[in-house]
Amino acid sequence: ARRQGLADVIAISTRRSDTLEEARELNLGDAYTLDPAEAVRGADLVILATPVGAYEAVMKAIAPALEPGAILSDVGSVKRHVVKVVEPLVPEGVHFIPGHPLAGTEHSGPSAGFAELFANRWCVLTPGPQVDKAAVEKLAAFWRAMGSNVETMDADHHDMVLAITSHVPHLVAYNIVGTVADLEQATQSEVIKFSASGFRDFTRIAASDPVMWRDVFLTNRDAVLEMLGRFLEDLSVLQRAVRVGDGPALEELFTRTRAVRRSIIDAGQETAAPDFGRPHEAPPVPEVATFVREHGGGDDA
Ligand SMILES: NC(=O)c1ccc[n+]([C@@H]2O[C@H](COP(=O)([O-])OP(=O)(O)OC[C@H]3O[C@@H](n4cnc5c(N)ncnc54)[C@H](O)[C@@H]3O)[C@@H](O)[C@H]2O)c1
Ligand SMILES: O=C(O)C(=O)C[C@]1(C(=O)O)C=C[C@H](O)C=C1
């Protein structure tokens, strides 16, 4: 935001003084404070960026200082819960527009950010039906100026799509790495030392912030359980194919999944190449998002 000149003043507030110092040393903002109310006073745009479990407390602290006409948004990985806890605390005249940039890494803290993080990535906004359209367009323009492609959808739909494309994959990674670590302990053998690079890719995801992900699973329970059920059904089918030696079924699936990987790379979503100043083509919405939109997440999905 700073590099693109999108704000006259960027005020940063953190919970701990060492985090604030880190942000100051990196020169990320113009004003730094441990008091969140002070940070938001007079702001045109306020973005919550803590783990979603902290939103209610942060909102209670900032609500009295939010100015009418301000846009209040966030970057949380779940949306229905955010609407539930934040909306009742939003003062009259403040435009509340939940958001979620689909970009991040396993690293946390101010130094984990980089200016190209949002370039060529999706940013999903989930405005409620009553929200001022001009405010939504203003926030969308902010994300576009950072290189993102913006899509609006409803909060429940967001949570269902992200449950299968982000939340369940993280659960799978946490689980496989946990199982390997347990095995290593139980057998006292050097399983991890000899792990192949496929497993190492899982360890990157499983190194993601424990508090952030705890909150994701506590607050998107229904959608995660729905998609986990579907995932486990498909895993059972695969288990059977392995057991009975059904080569064609295995090969057919692996061929389809390879095509998914290629389509993501072709859409430019694998590498976050900065592309400022040039108009960029929006990559297609991932196939699964279209699938869930058309079919919902129900029994026939
Ligand atoms: N990391 C990702 O890949 C990613 C991607 C998209 C969205 N998100 C969402 O963004 C949000 C922030 O994630 P991040 O990766 O930037 O994390 P981060 O750890 O880099 O930043 C979170 C900040 O919140 C502060 N914080 C934690 N608990 C707090 C509390 N109780 N009260 C006040 N401040 C508190 C931390 O000190 C830290 O400065 C989360 O809601 C997450 O779901 C993360
Ligand atoms: O690449 C990663 O490390 C991520 O996990 C990023 C990721 C994802 O699942 O894609 C994680 C959480 C989000 O809310 C958005 C992005």
UniProtKB/TrEMBL annotation:
Keyword set, alphabetical order: Amino-acid biosynthesis, Aromatic amino acid biosynthesis, NAD, Oxidoreductase, Signal, Tyrosine biosynthesis
Enzyme class name: oxidoreductase
Pathway membership, UniProt: Amino-acid biosynthesis; L-tyrosine biosynthesis; (4-hydroxyphenyl)pyruvate from prephenate (NAD(+) route): step 1/1
GO molecular function: NAD+ binding; oxidoreductase activity, acting on the CH-OH group of donors, NAD or NADP as acceptor; prephenate dehydrogenase (NAD+) activity; prephenate dehydrogenase (NADP+) activity
EC number(s) stated in the UniProt entry for this protein: 1.3.1.12
Known catalytic reactions: prephenate + NAD(+) = 3-(4-hydroxyphenyl)pyruvate + CO2 + NADH
Keyword match Cell cycle: no
Coiled-coil regions, chain positions: none
Occurrences of domain Prephenate/arogenate dehydrogenase (ranges): 1-272
An example Gene Ontology biological process: tyrosine biosynthetic process
Pfam families cross-referenced by the UniProt entry: PDH_C, PDH_N
PANTHER family: PREPHENATE DEHYDROGENASE, PREPHENATE DEHYDROGENASE [NADP(+)]
Recorded family membership: Belongs to the prephenate/arogenate dehydrogenase family.
Name of the protein: prephenate dehydrogenase
Species, as recorded: Devosia geojensis
Lineage of producing organism: Bacteria, Pseudomonadati, Pseudomonadota, Alphaproteobacteria, Hyphomicrobiales
